[in-house]
Structures are given as C-alpha cells and as structure tokens.
Amino acid sequence: MSRKRRMSRKHKVVAGVSAVAMVAGIAAVTVSTSQAAEACAGLDQALQNNQNFIAAQKANPDAQSEARIANRQAVIDLIQQRRQAAGCQ
C-alpha cells in the first residue's frame, strides 16, 4: 500500500508541475503579446524620431548634416529590422 501511495504522490507531483508549467506558458504568451505591442509602439516612436531628425537636418543643413543623416539612416534600417522581427505592422 505504501508503494501505491508513493506512486500516487509521484503522479500528483507530475500533474502539479505540468499544471504550473501550463499556467506559466499561458501567462508568458499573454505577457509577450502585451510586451510585443508595447515594443512596437516604442519602435514606431523611435522610427518617427529619427525620421524627424533627418528631415530637420535636410531643412537646415550644416557641415556635419550628411554624416548625421547617414548615421540616422543606419539606425532607421536597424529599427525596421527589429519591427519586422517583432511582427509590427
């Protein structure tokens, strides 16, 4: 009987661990979906900021504008890659 009791406890532990893992997985998906939306909003804002900076440099150029624009364009390219990887629209 004690062997049955031990087997029963093992099954309960396995079932409990499985249930916890499932709940954690559901929570992770929910949180990651929420975080993805926040990440997309942040990436969109960063993209807009860099585009605005480039527009301002083009409107009022100085000796360093060309280099600044090139740097910001590289940043925009990286942001676009991150947006695509995050599934942003």
How would you describe the overall organization of this protein?
The structure is a single chain. 90% of the residues lie in helices and 0% in strands. It is mainly α and 89 residues long. Helix 1 runs antiparallel to helix 2 (65-86). The longest helix has 58 residues, at 2-59. It starts with a helix and ends with a helix. Mean pLDDT is 78; it is low at 27-31.
SSE blueprint:
Elements: H1 2-59, H2 65-86
Helix pairs in contact: 1-2
Question: Nutshell version of this structure?
Answer:
By secondary structure, the chain is mainly alpha-helical. The protein is built from 2 helices and no strands.
Alpha plus pi helix count: 2
Please tally the β strands and state the result.
0
The low-confidence runs, each spanning 5 or more residues with pLDDT under 50, are 27-31
N-to-C span = 60 Å
Order of helices and strands: HH
Helical fraction: over 70%
Q: Using only CA atoms, what is the Rg? A: 25 Å
Largest sheet properties: none
Strand fraction equals: under 5%
- The best one-word shape is elongated
Average pLDDT number? 78
Structural class by secondary-structure content? mainly alpha
Signal peptide: 1-36
Protein name: Secreted protein
Keywords: Signal
Organism: Streptomyces daqingensis
